[in-house]
Amino acid sequence: MQSYREHIIQELPLISSYFRQKVERFLGENGLRLEELDVYCAIENQAGEIIAGAGLSSDIIKCIAVAAEARSEGLVVPLVSHLISLAASRGLHELKLYTKPENQAIFESLGFHVLATAPKAILMENGRGLEKYCEYLRTFRREGRCGVVVMNANPFTLGHLYLLQQAATQVDALYVIPVKEEGQRFPYAERKAMIQAAVERPTAEQNYFSGRCPKNQFSSANATPTRIVVLEGSAYQISAATFPTYFLKDLSDAADTHIRLDLDLYTRHIAPALNASVRFVGSEPIDALTNHYNTVMKEVLPAVVEVPRMETPDQVGGDVMPGSDRASKAISASAVRQALDEGRFSEAAALCPETTHPYLLAVLAERALRRELDLPGKPGLVCPESNGAHADMNYSTMLRGIAAIRPFFPKMAMAASADELRQLGIEAEKAMMAATGGVNTHRGAIFCLGLALNAWTQCAYSEELMPSATGKIAEGIYAKSQSDKNLPPRGAMAMALSGYKQLFEDWLPYYEKEGELKTLLRIMSTLDDTCVVKRVGYDRAQQVKQEAKEIAGQAGNDVSVMPDLIGHLCERYAAEGISPGGAADMLALTIFIHSIIS
Question: How far apart are CA 87 and CA 94, in angstroms?
Answer without folding.
Answer: 9
